[in-house]
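A quick word before the example. In earlier lectures we treated sequence and structure as two separate objects. From today on, think of them as two lines of the same record. Here is Flagellar protein FliS written that way.
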Amino acid sequence: MTYNKALNSYNQMNVNIDRPEKLILMLYEGALRFANFAKKAINEGNIEDKVKYIIKTSNIFIELINSLDFEKGGDISYYLNGLYAYQLELLAKANLENETKYLDDVIRVLKGLIEAWKEETGIN
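And the structure line, produced from the sequence above:
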């Protein structure tokens, strides 16, 4: 029964994502949300939540890196690969040093990516 519920949820998500561009936007927005949660957790001294949300944010950046198409994307793909990899470094530093300043940089970059992606794709 659990498998069927999971499959139905997956199929429902696929129906709601009619364009791959929307999925990228959802990943950016999810990463932004999780980075903000991680920052809040650091400010509150909640180590467990900090780690959980930094891992979630990192996993999104890893998925974004894995989705890059270097043949079709050319220079943009290489640029994004470096940008995403740097965000992973900042997330690791935020986790290790328990510092929100690194998350502030990640949040700033994500906001810029969201704005640029919406402008480029026309998705809101």
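Notice the following. Residues 19-121 form a domain with the Four Helix Bundle (Hemerythrin (Met), subunit A) fold (CATH 1.20.120.340). We will return to this example when we discuss secondary structure assignment.
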